[in-house]
Structures are given as structure tokens and as C-alpha cells.
């Protein structure tokens, strides 16, 4: 049974910040999709239902001691691998990518849940090897731990999520005590060997995204079109924005594409302006700092590493998604946590917050 005394340690600010970000998401999704279908609230209602399902999952997670995650981490890793293999054989194809398993009532994207699964299983792996990182080659098993699922995701193809795994790994290795000079060497070797290998295995559209990133105006009507329209949308928002609901020209006149998913920040910045963008980014900063705070107070190494992995994942998603909308990062298709429309991403992020809250609630070994 759930011990109500644990609620004294619940990080209410973290929970309320997540809900505030989602409230903004509901408003901007309603605004950007109001003319999409006959039902102006079609996407809003689906997004709200998914949030409700995610909140139920969050409550369930809070009722389970997070040490169970440590115990079952190997099985979580294996289940994750099975799903990633299954999507290659049974996944539905969309836009040249095979990333989803159609469950009829829900399209499951295993690569999204793989992020949390890898964070949990890698935290267990690192905890079991705590303090044994003096050798240069001591991190090799952890690279292999991440490389296998990362390779399966890269084949879907999903370059953006593959890179997320690398960032999570580096963040968790650093917090585990791996020497900075070793991490720098790993990165140097990885870039030297990985970039040529990666380039020759990228799809043509993925290569073009990287080329266009350097100069979107070299092909303004095709591959560079979306970035240019995004820059126009963000810039035209000015200080206060053009207003919600059919006021943003780039969004509502059909110039900006994917305005409720990957490029939702562009539409949001156009309609709420610089002030609205700063408010949203400030909420993300609070969210990430609260997760790091929980990490610093966790009662064990496993809890700390799980929180650091989740904070790294969230921060990288925000950096890449917002960065690509303003032209300082290449387009990768990574969603903006809690804001972009998408079921798997929203559910995974809410589960992740549930795990963080769980670790924070049980930061003391004994409750009085």
C-alpha cells in the first residue's frame, strides 16, 4: 500500500511545472490545428486523453518503490530490444521511416520508450560497476550497452533518437566518475571514426538535412523551405506575438508545416512572441533543474544516475528542437517534451517524470 507520509517528499514544483508546460501545449495545439478537421478540438481532445493516460501511469509509478526498477532493469532492457527488433519486421511505414507498431487503438513508437528503458538499465549497469572507472577501457561495456539498441533505431531510420542515446551515455558516464580526459578521448575517437561511417549510411534526405542546415537558401522551395518558414514565423512574432487562434500568418495560411509536432515551437513563438517563448523556456529550465535537484538528494547511486539520464534527455530534446526551429541546429525530428503532439513521446516523458518524483519521494531510507 502507498504510504501517505511519502507525499511530504513529493516535489510539487516539478509536478506543477510539468502540468504548466502541458497547459501551454494544449493551448498552442488547439490554436495550430483549429482548421485541420471538421472538429476544431480533434487534436486537443486526443492530446488531453493521452495526458490523462500518462497521468494514470505516473500515479502507478509513484506507488511502486523505484528499487524495483533496479531489480528488473535487465528484463526492461530485453523487452526494449524485442520491441526494437519487432518494429523492423512488423512496423508501419510512414514517410520512408518504419518506427511505429500499429496497435489499432494506439501507434506505439518503441524508440521513444527505449530512451527511458536505456536510462534505467544503464543506471543499473553503472551502479554495479561503481568506482571501477580508472582504466581507459572501463567504459567499453557501457558503450556496447547503448550501441546495440542505438543501431536498431538508426536502421528505422531515426538519426535524432540515435544521437540522444550518445548524449545520455556521456552524461551518465560523467556522473559515474569516468575521467573527463577519457570522455574527451571517447568523443574524439567517436567523431573521427563515426562521422565517415555515419555519412555513408545516411539516407539521401538525412544527408540533405545536414547540407541544408549550413545554408537553407540553397534550395528555398524544397529542402530548405521548412527552415526558412520557421525562421520567418519565429521572427515575425516580435515581442508580444501575433495572437492565438488564426492570427499567425505562417501557421494558419499553410506556409509552416508540422506546426503541431516537430515545429510547434515556431508556431508558438509566432503567436505568443519573444515573451511567450521565454516563459516556456523558463519552465523547461525549472523542470530540468528540479530533476537535477532530485538527483542530488537521491538516497543511492542508482536513483541519482536515473535522474541525471532523464535530465540529460530532456535538456537535449529542448536544445535540439528549439535550435532547429531557429536555424542553429539541423532538423532531426526530435519532439519538444510535453508540447509536441504525439502519443508515445508524451507517455514516455510522463513516465520519466513519474520515476523522478518516485526517487525524490523515497530519498530518505526511513520515514518518521
Strand adjacency order, main sheet: 1-2-3
Measured as a percent range, the helix fraction is: 55-70%
How many distinct folded domains? 1
Span between N and C termini? 17 Å
Low-confidence stretches: none
User: How do the helices and strands follow one another from N- to C-terminus?
Assistant: HHHEEEHHHHHHHHHH
Gross geometry = globular
Averaged pLDDT, please? 87
The chain-level structural class is: mainly alpha
Q: What proportion strand?
A: under 5%
- Rg over C-alpha atoms, rounded to the nearest angstrom: 21 Å
Q: Would you report the number of β strands?
A: 3
Helix count equals 13
Summarize the biggest pleated sheet.
3 strands, antiparallel
Q: Which terms summarize this structure?
A:
368 residues; mainly alpha; 66% helix
Briefly say what this structure is.
With 368 residues, the protein is mainly α. It contains 13 helices and three strands, in the order αααβββαααααααααα.
Describe this structure in words.
This protein has 368 residues and is an all-alpha fold. It has one domain. The protein has 13 helices and 3 strands. It has a 3-stranded antiparallel β-sheet with strand order 1-2-3, with helices on one face. Helix 1 (12-33) runs antiparallel to helix 2 and helix 5 (140-154) packs antiparallel against helix 6 (159-176). The longest helix has 34 residues, at 264-297. It is globular and about 55 Å long. It starts with 11 loop residues before the first helix and ends in a 7-residue tail after the last helix. 44% of the residues are buried. The mean pLDDT is 87.
Amino acid at each position: 500500500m502507498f504510504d501517505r507520509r511519502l507525499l511530504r517528499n513529493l516535489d510539487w514544483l516539478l509536478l506543477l511545472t510539468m502540468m504548466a508546460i502541458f497547459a501551454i501545449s494544449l493551448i498552442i495545439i488547439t490554436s495550430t490545428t483549429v482548421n485541420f478537421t471538421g472538429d476544431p478540438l480533434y487534436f486537443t481532445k486526443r492530446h488531453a486523453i493521452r495526458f490523462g493516460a500518462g497521468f494514470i501511469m505516473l500515479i502507478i509509478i509513484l506507488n511502486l518503490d523505484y528499487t524495483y526498477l533496479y531489480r528488473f532493469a535487465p528484463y526492461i532492457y530485453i523487452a526494449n530490444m524485442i520491441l526494437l527488433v519487432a518494429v523492423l519486421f512488423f512496423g508501419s511505414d510512414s514517410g520512408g521511416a518504419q518506427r511505429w507498431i500499429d496497435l489499432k487503438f494506439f501507434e506505439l513508437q518503441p524508440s521513444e520508450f527505449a530512451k527511458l528503458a536505456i536510462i534505467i538499465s544503464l543506471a543499473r549497469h553503472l551502479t554495479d560497476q561503481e568506482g571501477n572507472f580508472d582504466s581507459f577501457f572501463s567504459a567499453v561495456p557501457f558503450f556496447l550497452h547503448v550501441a546495440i539498441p542505438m543501431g536498431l533505431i538508426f536502421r528505422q531510420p531515426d538519426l535524432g533518437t540515435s544521437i540522444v542515446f550518445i548524449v545520455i551515455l556521456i552524461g551518465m558516464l560523467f556522473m559515474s566518475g569516468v575521467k573527463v580526459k577519457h570522455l574527451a578521448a571517447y568523443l574524439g575517437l567517436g567523431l573521427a571514426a563515426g562521422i565517415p561511417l555515419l555519412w555513408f549510411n545516411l539516407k539521401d534526405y538525412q544527408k540533405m538535412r545536414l547540407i541544408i542546415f549550413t545554408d537553407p537558401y540553397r534550395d528555398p522551395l524544397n529542402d530548405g523551405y521548412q527552415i526558412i518558414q520557421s525562421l520567418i514565423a519565429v521572427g515575425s512574432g516580435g515581442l508580444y506575438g501575433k495572437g492565438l487562434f488564426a492570427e499567425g500568418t505562417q501557421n494558419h495560411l499553410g506556409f509552416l508545416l508540422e506546426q503541431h509536432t516537430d515545429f510547434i515551437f515556431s508556431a508558438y513563438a509566432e503567436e505568443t512572441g519573444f515573451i511567450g517563448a521565454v516563459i516556456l523556456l523558463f519552465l523547461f529550465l525549472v523542470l530540468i533543474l528540479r530533476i537535477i535537484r532530485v538527483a542530488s538528494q537521491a538516497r543511492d547511486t542508482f536513483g541519482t544516475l536515473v535522474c541525471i539520464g532523464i535530465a540529460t534527455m530532456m535538456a537535449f530534446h529542448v536544445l535540439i528542437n528549439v535550435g532547429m526551429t531557429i536555424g542553429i541546429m539541423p532538423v532531426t525530428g526530435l519532439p519538444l517534451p510535453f508540447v509536441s503532439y504525439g502519443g508515445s513521446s508524451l507517455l514516455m516523458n510522463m513516465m520519466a517524470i513519474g520515476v523522478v518524483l518516485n526517487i525524490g519521494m523515497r530519498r530518505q531510507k526511513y520515514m518518521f
